[in-house]
Specification:
Helix content is 61%, strand content 1%. The protein has 343 residues and is mainly α.
Length: 343
Amino acid sequence: MFRRPPRLRATVLLQHLVVLAGFAIATLVMTYPVASVLTRAIPIDHQIEGWYPGDGDPWHALWIVWYFKRALATFPPPLLWTDLVFYPIGFDMPFLTGFGVILVPAAALASIVGVTVAYNVVWLLSFVLAGYAMYRLARFLGLHAPIAFVSGALYMFSSYRMLHAREHLPLLIASCLVPFFALALLKAMDEPTTGRCIACALVLAISTGVWWYCTRIAAAVLRRAAVATVVFLAMASPFVLPAILSPASYDGVVNRPLAESNIYAADLLAFFVPSPTNPVFGKWSDPLYRRFTGNPYEKTVYLGYVLLVLSLWGIVRMPWEKTRLYVIAAVAFFVLALGPFLH
């Protein structure tokens, strides 16, 4: 087996550390003043029109991190039910597992630095991980390091992530798993070893547990795929089974009405109109966004004209054999994002 010389391994490691440092600095700058108020405030949107005062997912996430830290301090840990709300009847909480692996480091960190700081650290880390994941994917696809770094920055600070950053921490964390899964899948397609198939299963299982939204077999690779499937089921079942077995969770999370899917579907025009929070074009696009259905987070899907032009340029310049997978995936998910009825 080929192994890199120690000096080359050190150079590669240093390059990755520099990239991570660059993404960390960019995160601190682009998300300012979050880093300056770590102990006393969290990123959250102002009062949303039509919502109850104080409503919002960040408060739920804070409470869940606090509760998970508290539950782990008792035995047996009451992870899926509590009487701290709706006392004395209590409340079934299978959605707690929907935060998946976030809860373990967040709860451990919260026990040392407090819930607010833990939330902010995980929040900031999600940007760095998203940029680094896209950087790794871009490098695997053959892009030069500076271009791959720009690709990571475009992804981590996209309108979609920046909007959800003020409301949905699990989705923010899960976004780094998309390029990581694509990277694992492409590596498995190049060389379908058992290890690479298991890597795909692990990333998919983690994404299944982190966020509810995230829920070519040949004879020669059937055994490896079977092992990967077992790993996926074993890793994902602690997150998925509580939701499936709990009637309240199934009705509230899994079984969603068609009308809701229609309301929260993306508008066709929204893909090409800058976000209403854009510091330059927001004042012109805000009146148009008010006509779209859904809340501010779900209806913001703007990709950016620079990214669209570069993508089209890449499709035209590269051979179809190399781009067809991405084109098919992009078209399929674009259609799915439009929902059951065209807006």
